[in-house]
Every structure is written in C-alpha cells, then in structure tokens.
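Most newcomers find our protein records easier to grasp once they have seen one. A learned vocabulary of local backbone shapes supplies the integers on the structure line. Here is such a record, shown just as it appears in the course material:
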Amino acid sequence: MSKSRRRIESRFAAKTCSRLSLRGAPRACHSGSAPRFAQRSGYSLILLSAILWSFVASSAFAQTDFDKANEEYAQGHFKEAISGYETLVRAGQWSANLFYDLGNAYFRTGEFGRAILNYERALALERHHPEATANLQITRDEAHALELQQSWPERHLQFGSVNQYCIAAAIAFWLAAFAIAMLIFARRRSATLIVTLMFFLLVSAVAICAVYALERGSKGSALAIVTGKNVQARLATADSANSVLALPPGSEVKILSTRGDWIYAALPNTLRGWIPAKDAQQVRL
C-alpha cells in the first residue's frame, strides 16, 4: 500500500472516530476528556439548578423575614416590625398584605401620613382589599387628611382598575383584528360581522379612554401622600413664600413637576402650590 493511501486512510479513520465519539462511541477511540456536548449539558443543569435554588432560597428568606416582622408586631415592637417590613419593601418583595401590615405598624406609632401611604399602596396592588380600605378611612378621619377631588369620569370608572381596562382594550383590539381578517377573506360581507367589528372597536376605544382618565386622574401614577408634619403648600420654592394651604399628614397631592428639592402639585382645594419633596412620597413605587 502506498504512503499517500495510508495517510488518507489514517485521516479518514481519525475523522470517523471523532464523529463516533460525539455519538457516544467507546473510549478506545477518544481517551481524552468527556464529550463537549456532555460538558455543556452538565454546565447547563448546574446553572439551572443554581438559579432555581437561589429563587427558592430568596423566597424562603423573604417569608422568614416577613414572619419575623409579624412576630415583632404581635409582641408590640412596632418600630422593629416597621424595620423588617421596610427591608422587604426595599428588596422588592411587594404585596398588598405587606403594605397593609406596614400601614398598621405606622398607625400604631402615630405616623398617620406613612400609614395612609402604605394603605394606598396596598390598594394600588389589590383594589378590593377590604381591611386596607377600612383602615385607610379610619386613619384619614384620625389625621383629618385632605383628599383630592375626583372628576366625573373617575367616579364612573371606579369599578375597574387600570390593569383590567388595559386587558379589556387588548382583548377587544385583537378580536377586532380577527373580525377584520374574516371580512377580508370572506366571500360575503356579513352585516353581523361588521356590527361585531364595530362593537369590539368601540370597547377597545372606551377602555383606552378609561386608562387615560384614570392615569391622569387623582388616583393615577402622579398621586403622592404627604408624610411630613406641619406641611404648607406655598406660592414659590421658598419657606418664606406665602402659604396656599396647610396639608395635614396623609393628605393627597398630585405631582405636576419637580424643581430641586421642591415639587409642584395639584392640591385638594383645586389650587396648586409648592411643597418640599421630602414631605411627600408617591404611592406607586
């Protein structure tokens, strides 16, 4: 056999052995490390297990911290309970019950502004939370907090939340798109299908308008709660400027703009004024 033929056969054998080794051939052909795909699969499984373990561990730790804060509250250690709840809030472990419990703890310490803030945050996450609704009203009465006036669209749209209206708008839009497709490909244009299309378009438009009205209204994303004491809304960004309105803790304002350490807000008396940014916090985080 010629030398050139031997070289070709040896190369072919090496390639064949390499291909077979990737399919799980005996180690006689490949005595080195494990196949690359097996290593990659092993690394993927390890990474996936680490991610799942981290998620489970973080959830367990968060639940443990929540239980500890609840124990502190039950024992009357309200400041320690507030510290535990606030730690969970900063970690992003948000829930309606967490904000509700935090509001209760602040109420027990006499910080009515922060209590109302957290009741509002609980209701922003879970609109129908009867305990938060009841405690919010009790705290408002205790603090003599002022509320923003709602527009008539807001009053008539309160039965649904922004998320619910968004979902309704999306569903109606896609159903309208499906109806349009049926009209395009149908041999005959049915009057019933046309009426259905118009109905879905109307529902989508109404839902979008509802989202806009609620987001721009008194309970929208710009809603803030006065948490400071002896807060005065003023005509200018200075403590010496004339006062527009005294705002008890827990009063609602709507942030319109910011300038340095001051925020310009719509006030419960339908006027506008400047208040220190440190004395108000937005409901939505």
